[in-house]
Design goal:
- It is built from 13 helices and 18 strands.
- It is an alpha+beta fold.
- The chain folds into 3 domains: 125 residues; 111 residues, 2-Layer Sandwich (Phosphorylase Kinase, domain 1), CATH 3.30.200; 225 residues, Aminoglycoside phosphotransferase (APH), C-terminal lobe (Aminoglycoside 3'-phosphotransferase, Chain: A, domain 2), CATH 3.90.1200.10.
- A hairpin with a 6-residue loop joins β12 and β13.
């Protein structure tokens, strides 16, 4: 293929110099990304057109252009809760002929630029390319815009066979030889991701309830030098049962789950205790408590404008946050610390010996990183788990309210056995956090899973009926 200016045809094997030049590469990839990126499950800007892209960095992980690491910023009309543009991490393979087994991973045929004549595809779906990522994580060091690091916990053997997971929504994961699992963050923001920061702190504290990071990789901003976490490699808990699936099996078979819930409460308390010892804690001042109540009230009112079914409950739900506001004047000191931030049954794994492990400390991905790293009372995580028991109970017909109530009580009992503090003794704080979580769920379900909206709405109706305390 020749170009009008008389330049020679693009070579069959592009050079690394051409392949890692964002200015040369972006025009050839932009039309492909404009069509492909919004279709991905982890793309956060669904429903809004993409007006353009900025290719912030290109790093070949192999000589030539067979495997490229990209950081791409997608520009879209701003929404009320979005920043200037989301940044995404891509691992793109290119090939002259794409094998049939990778057809579903196709991004598109490149018709111009330094990669003209090749086909771009999602490289994490290619075992050969996923193996390259593991090898980079095995050997620390810098590569282009990327830097790879190894921790003191665990080894990275050679030759582990990769297997991409298909179930995740906001990130992508690859299991290697049923021994390690790499999480590849898709929507990335500047700063250290809590899913690296908190497990590292817990490992240093000797808490084995959370798999310790074995390796990770990151990039740094050229302007500020700020670190951005891109991916984490951790042990894979082969054979461990997902807490959500386990709860549903017990419900379906009408089996008691209270002992599992109690043990999970103990595991949560162990993690909270370790985090409080490993990282700084704060005591909420009166002003901070009032600001927390005000932020929850604003989320309620904003969400009600987007979820009309919520409007009727707003006056009663405000009382939960008004009670929290009034709590600031009771003179009682309340500790705040780093917490999981998005704790639910699906973030918990039970091993064959009954041991519970807690994973995925990223927090709620839709919230700003600075907000996800803020200290909170432990009640935030506890409220998330209480909501998860309610979700499980309402996922099986008929709704088993007694099952949910028993699990919620057992979980709080187990938590108190380890921490020495029963979260139910602070009902105002617990009600406020559970209400705030259910409001978040209502907005999420209205946007992404309308059939599930009745689940948080039933909880909000219950919480609206609870008298202020």
């Amino acid at each position: 293929m020749s170009e009008a200016a008389g330049r020679p045809a693009a070579p069959a094997q592009p050079t690394a110099v051409a392949a890692d030049d964002p200015a040369a590469l972006l025009p050839s990839l932009e039309p492909l990304l404009r069509a492909w990126l919004p279709r991905q499950r982890w793309f956060a800007g669904k429903g809004r057109p993409v007006s353009g892209f900025t290719l912030e960095s290109v790093t070949p992980l192999l000589p030539g252009a067979a495997l490229l690491h990209l950081l791409v910023r997608a520009h879209q009309p701003p929404a009320a809760d979005d920043g200037p543009g989301d940044r995404y991490q891509l691992l793109v393979g290119t090939a002259e002929v794409l094998p049939q087994h990778l057809s579903a991973a196709t991004i598109g045929a490149i018709t111009r630029g330094p990669l003209a004549g090749r086909t771009a595809y999602e490289a994490l779906q290619d075992p050969r390319q996923a193996s390259v990522l593991l090898e980079r994580l095995r050997i620390p060091g810098a590569l282009g815009a990327l830097s790879f690091h190894r921790g003191p916990h665990g080894e990275v053997p050679r030759g582990l066979v990769p297997r991409p997971l298909q179930a995740e929504q906001s990130n992508s994961s690859v299991v290697y030889g049923d021994r390690l699992i790499a999480k590849f963050f898709r929507r990335v923001v500047a700063g250290t991701n809590p899913d690296l920061e908190l497990p590292l702190a817990l490992a240093r504290a000797g808490c084995d309830r959370v798999p310790a990071p074995v390796a990770w990789f990151e990039t740094r901003s050229g302007d500020t030098g700020e670190t951005t976490t891109l991916g984490v490699l951790q042990p894979f808990l082969k054979g461990a049962a997902d807490g959500w699936d386990l709860a549903l099996k017990h419900l379906t078979n009408e089996r008691d789950f209270t002992e599992e819930a109690r043990q999970l409460g103990r595991a949560t308390a162990e993690v909270h205790t370790a985090l409080a010892g490993a990282l700084p804690t704060v005591t909420y001042s009166r002003m901070q408590t009032e600001q927390l109540a005000a932020a929850m009230t604003r989320r309620l009112e904003t969400t009600a404008q987007q979820v009309p079914a919520l409007l009727a409950h707003v006056p009663a739900l405000r009382t939960a946050f008004a009670a929290l506001h009034d709590l600031a004047s009771d003179g009682r000191a309340r500790r705040a610390q780093r917490v999981h931030g998005d704790l639910h049954l699906g973030q918990c794994l039970r091993e064959a010996d009954g041991t519970w492990r807690i994973i995925d400390f990223e927090g709620e991905p839709s919230r700003p990183l600075a907000e996800r790293r803020m200290p909170h009372p432990p009640h935030r995580d506890i409220a998330g788990m209480l909501r998860s028991f309610d979700y499980a109970a309402r996922s099986v017909r008929p709704w088993n309210a007694a099952w949910s109530d028993a699990c919620r009580a057992a979980y709080c009992t187990g938590y108190a056995e380890v921490s020495g503090s029963d979260p139910r003794t602070d009902p105002v704080l617990l009600r406020a956090y559970e209400t705030d979580k259910a409001v978040y769920e209502a907005l999420y379900e209205a946007r992404h899973r309308p059939d599930w909206l009745p689940v948080p709405m039933a909880a909000l109706a219950r919480l609206a009926e609870e008298p202020p305390r």
